[in-house]
Known about the structure:
The protein is mostly helical. Helix content is about 60%, strand content about 0%.
Amino acid sequence: MTEMVIDEPNRHLWRVVDAAYDRLICTECGNKLSREARAVTSVERTAYRVFPRLMMTRELYLFYSPSAEELVWAREKTDTDEHLLALTLALKCFQRLGRFAKAREMPPVVVEHIRRCLEVGEDVAPVYASPRTAESHRVLVRRREGVAYAPGKARKIAAKAMTWAAWVKNHPPDLINVALERLAQARLELPAFSTLDSMESTIRTQVNGQIFQTIWRRLNAEDRARIEALLVVGPGG
């Protein structure tokens, strides 16, 4: 029965699929397969913002064009063109994503657009003189946006939101989206998507387990026998 569910997961509820995975045994080592053996939630199916693979011109100008006031602010806080570009990039990306983007994930088109807005040379790169300067820029951006960096508090709020939602929802993206909404309301910097995905998996498994146990305890002996009989394969297969 377990193998049948795993082979066709789209035909079953998430709760049933999760229960099947929990009972799946590795034929090589004899251990239960862990969550890591399963596919993680696709970030594109959630409200967690990432840079699109193809940046549309409208989106580029709408979300990544600094205002005149933002340009004045950034110039007042920096002393070199490199730091000016880095700080402005950090600000505009944070406004869009709710977190600080890593340099390697920033689309070149966004960097070039903001470079043109700042009217700095093409040879100017968004680099920092030291990690200390980079951290000071993050503090400036958080302060300006009214957002706090509190990883522990963010995880607690996300966990509470997911636990509540898991009793009425079972689609992984739904639980992550509920957590994102609560974190935005709390004005907290978003954790990495992998953190939220891992939390969602753990919490959903725990809640589903409680639901399964509650249902099982409410069944009498006759009901349990009838359910177990469904798993018996007859002579004809």
